[in-house]
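Predict the structure of Schlafen AlbA-2 domain-containing protein.
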Amino acid sequence: MADLDLQILLTSRSEALDVEYKAWHDTSLTESGAKLARHLAALCNHGGGYLIFGVEDQTRTPQGPTGFDEKLFGEDAISSIVKRYLDPPFQCRVARVSHEGVEYPIVIVPQHGARPVITLRDGPADVKNKPIGIREGAIYIRAPGPESVAIRRPDDWTALLDRCLGARADILSRIMRHAIGKPARPSLEATDLLKAACEATAASFVEQMGEVVPLAAEKDREWVRHQAGNFAVLGYALTDDDGELVELENLRALNSRADIGMHEYAHAGWSAFLPLRVPERAPQLRTDKLFGADRTYLEGMRPVHSSLLTTFDYWRMYRDGVSCFAEAYREDGPRTRKDHVLVVGSCLVKLHSILAHARLVGQQTPGVGKVVIHQEWKGLMGRHLCWREDVLVTPTKLRDDRFVRTIMLDWNEVRDRYVQALQKICQPFFELFAIAGWTDPQTALTKEVIEREFGSLHGSVRLFES
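Done. Here is the predicted structure for Schlafen AlbA-2 domain-containing protein.
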């Protein structure tokens, strides 16, 4: 998460049910572990959320530096607490973010699966022999306060059971499909809607660039116009095992959680699907008509009368399970204007960004079985492929101005074999440059080559571990 995102979270003193603040303390203590287990279970049963260390519980203000070992707030420490107290166990991710020179650990808690998380044992006993923090056999949920409490009323079960039943239906569908042996492919609606959403995103990007021209300095206007015909639009659709689109809930919250991972894995000074916090530039819910139906989507990066920094990319997240972004080529910047080249690292970042966002959103969305990636590159004619600066990969110049490809991936591959999935979506594009070695991602786009290119960039760009 960016400092700005954390600042908003802290200064707003959020009372959202999916956020829990905890002061610095020794998490290795048995009593502390039991209390944390209660909050972790409740957040998981709530559908996922955040546990933030280093923030005073009552006032919700950051405490500043701590003398505690950072390992006490790491993934291993959290995993140990989960395994000791909760069933089924689940894996949390910890993002360390900087605020006023201090790093604050944010535990990212996933949503539960086909059954709710239940406690395995009591916490340590107090002087009256009553368990501290957690009780064996309890199912904890989030309640107004916010606080983590055991389920007591019938109404408390409604949302939890709905999510459990949805997850079980997804599992049953997967089992039946494997039993029948019928290969699943995305439905016509899924692929067509993805392509239509990408076209709409591209059209809005071009419109956005047109709005920027009169706002730019006279010397930059021709360059801005150039961007409207030289950009890439990439998108993905999340479907179930039957190829039907998986609906996304609460787009703002979903993208904000994904943004934490994007800053950690796909942030090259800027990241795709970035939710700006300035009110006039913050993402807005809008409606567009695609295939004769009104589709709700979250829109990011509409220009205003200020800096041009946010005008060279544009994105949409549709409730239907489709997300897209359009971005100009960084190689065409005003100070590095080289219309005749594309740089390997920049192209890799674009492809990595769309796949990384699909992975991060898919992890929060029950029922995902397939990921469909669509890519369209515009303004390619006459371009070379370079490593960096003017070091050519190949002297081959592209003869076509546009490249389009749609690729289907299994969700398990995106989640568990990320490098392989990234190679699959990169291969068709790099094959355009027709040089020996670039036609096979296993030999040309190895993990080592990709990591080398990512390592040369500013920011934080890295691969997900398999």
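The longest strand covers residues 231-239.
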